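notes to self, project folder thing:

trying the whole complex as one job this time. last attempt i did each chain seperately and stitching them together was a nightmare. two parts in total, labels are on each line so i dont mix them up again. if this works i'll redo the older ones the same way
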Amino acid sequence: MDTKRRAFLVSMAQNVAIAAAGGILWSAYIDEAKASELLLRPPGARKEKEFIKMCIKCGLCVEACPYDTLKLAKPGDDKPLGTPYYIPRQTPCYMCDDIPCVPACPTGALDIKSVTREQDGKRVFDITMMRMGVAIVDIKDCIAYWGIQCDACYRACPLLDKAIYLEMRRNTRTGKHAKLLPVVDPDYCTGCGLCEHACVTEKAAIRVLPREVALGKVGSHYVKGWQKSDEARLKGSKGIQTTVTPRSKKSAIETLNEGIDFE
Amino acid sequence: MSRLYNKYRFLILRRLTQITILALYVGANYFGWKILQGNLSSSLFLGKVPLADPYAVLQIFATGALLASNVLIGAAIVAVFYALIGGRAFCSYVCPVNMVTDLANYLRRTWKLDKFEKKWWASRNIRYWVLGLSIVLSFLMGTAAFEIVSPISMLHRGLVFGMGFGWAALLGIFLFDLFILKNGWCGHVCPLGGFYALIGRYNLFRVRHNQPNCTLCMKCKEVCPEKEVLYMIGKKSQIVDMGECTLCGRCVEVCDDDALGFSIRDYVKKGENNEA
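result (full assembly):
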């Protein structure tokens, strides 16, 4: 028996086993530590899965933020360590026109393309393009839904009448007043959180949530027949294909009227 | 006074660079200084030059993400600097954890713990396993694996942006180094140190041993945080050629016999150990 060879193989196996055991513990921790569905990321942030890959945790976006909106997650915050986030109820995003935080990102985890558009052959910043989250109204705890006049969130919204508009509804309790209800349009809402910051209730009745969490998805099988652009999706589709048998070639009524040949 | 200076000149220099760099980052966050913004993971020097941790960038690469050019240029600048000039000097002149582990090591010596403590043996190659593992896990888990646990980033980011419970990790390292394993973190486990040991293997500045002057007092080995790199002491005149040497210069300071000093590697001369 070659003992040298055996010793080498055994020590190698030991090393690999220790590395594997350590790797399992380590990866279990990472799996826990990076789970963060409910976190609001800075403007221009890529989808969470991409963002958590690319963010190098340098804090340059945090330093660029003039309102100290952005924070870096500290140990004990129960958020992926060192990554930037904001809590709108404490400090919302004031939607700077020049968006200092996004170009500060060295890795591209904050995607500059997502907040700029082409204008006269140049790329210009457009903060209204950002989609950090979406505001959701809790209609049981919003006092406007009680019939009390409050338009704090509506007034605070930087995209007033677009991202938040007021809908009038008869107040059946008093019989002679209107309720002015704030409604959020997710097509315009950037998730800045000025509404949540302005909300007068003890715990905000309008809150910003990540779009992935808050918004549903219709799926491609619904087509808006009244919208030309959406109907264009049907172009070139062959409709529903079914199995064709000698009997099903004709319609049911035709077949019945012909009488059935039992030959 | 001058004797004191001679005995601690590199230590003073290292503390100065460590604290200055830290202060510049802290100043950038709290007072808007534009000299060094960001933190050790990635930063902006003088508001223009990007700098980035090449090891962190390597992990992000492993996740499969395509990075913007800024951070790649930054990582290249840092990697080339340490490969040509700095060697593993990051560990002893920049890294803030060095101050924590040096304190543990200092207490170890003054309390003479080595004489009484139960001895644990651990391979100094653990760091290379951790290094490899961090790349594999970054690939599998879709996030930079070491960056999410790194106590270096935790301490540095903590000092610049707010500490949270980060002090607990540092206390852990301090106690580990003090009571469990001598030079445990920096000398055995830390993959960032391993990374710089690999890329700084052939840098310009090296410590050189002058064997005829050596009286075998072994003060250098006593104080060296990576004492296996001093394998030539009393045996052979040559440069300290192992990448694990952090160029901290403690051996040069403690040597009373002028047998150790900084010098420049002679790339031309034959013989891999650069014998003098």
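what i see at first glance: Chain A touches chain B through 38 residues (CB under 8 Å).
need to look closer tmrw
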